[in-house]
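Q: My labmate handed me this sequence with no annotations at all. I'd like to see what the chain might look like in three dimensions before we decide whether it's worth expressing. Could you predict it?
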Amino acid sequence: MATSNTRWIQRFEQYQKSLDSIEAVIPQYAQLSELEKDGLIQRFEITFDLSWKVMQDYLKEAGYADTKGPRPCIKQMAQNNLLDGFNWEEMLNARNELSHVYDEAESRNHLDKIVYDYTPVFKEFSLLMAQKL
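A: Here is what I predict for the chain of 133 residues:
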């Protein structure tokens, strides 16, 4: 379907690196310092942003040129039975909260979800898109 210089593939490679950096810290999750926890939250935000941009580029190549932004991309991918829209909407809401809330206690409430709920969803997306290469 695509060549190695296709935009979604290039972005997918960056997504993979970002996901790898999350997965690398999960074994030490319980021992993370406050600064490292902040870094994990930031890495989640970056990985989420890369994921929907991979979706957008992939959908564009598949003929959905007008699908722009995270919510429409998630919706279209779910309609195409490529992902669970409910999980991705929850992740989008978490990403938006984390990006706009500067309350440390509130941000810490999202850490367990990032590690135990969202990272497996990212991994599932990674496997799906790797099959599309």
